[in-house]
Structure formats: C-alpha cells, structure tokens
Specification:
Strand content: 5-15%
Structural class: mainly alpha
Largest sheet: 2 strands, antiparallel
Oligomer: single chain
Number of helices: 4
Shape: rod-shaped
Radius of gyration: 25 Å
C-alpha cells in the first residue's frame, strides 16, 4: 500500500502511524501551551487585584494598623519573587486563623502567605 501525506509518499503503514502520533503530540503541546498562557494571564489579574485592594486599604483612613501593615507588605511583594519577613508571615498567619478578621484583611494575609509558600 502507498499512503500520500502532502507531497511525500509513505510506502509503509508504520510510518503513517508515526506521523499520526506526531500530530497527536503536536495537538497536545498546542493545547497545553494555550492553557499555560491562560493560567499566566489569570495569575497576573490576581496580582493586580491584590495590589488594588492593598492600595485602597492604605488610602482608607479607617483601616486598622494590621490592615495597613499587611497591605504595605503585599504591595512590596507585588510582581516580585520576594517574600515577607518571618514577623510579617507570622502576623499574616495569625490573621488567617482569626475568625473575626475581615475579608479584606484575610485577602491581604493570604497574599503574603502564598508568596512565602512560593519561596519554599
């Protein structure tokens, strides 16, 4: 049997199978690349959201000292691979365990601890 693929003639069915496997791998790599691009874009929007929350917190005159401290640390880490110091990580951890902490405070604390986890 003779198989035609483009301008090439393949005389062996095994070669056709190899070409089909190559096409499948190419499709999988293309799909994975698209997924990774979407994930990277989603990660950037999350960073921007934390930065926005931190900025609003720092400009809010009613923000607590803990919120301001967490917001400053989150902004300092934004877009870098740097992690907060041990004291700030401890403060963020305590905030996340505090049942009475606001959503904004926990969001800022979560940003700090997730950056610390990436560092490990």
């Amino acid at each position: 049997m003779i198989y035609f693929i483009g301008k090439n003639v393949l005389k062996y069915p095994q070669l056709l199978a190899i070409v089909e496997i190559g096409k499948t791998i190419l499709n999988m790599v293309t799909a994975l690349t698209a997924h990774l691009r979407r994930a990277k874009i989603a990660g950037k929007s999350k960073i921007n959201k934390v930065g926005s929350v931190a900025g609003r917190t720092l400009s809010n005159p009613n923000a607590s000292a803990v919120q301001r401290s967490l917001a400053g640390s989150a902004l300092a880490q934004k877009g870098t691979n740097k992690a907060a110091g041990k004291a700030m990580e401890a403060k963020a951890s305590a905030t996340l365990q505090n049942r009475t902490a606001s959503t904004t405070t926990k969001q800022l604390a979560n940003s700090i601890t997730s950056q610390a986890i990436k560092k490990c």
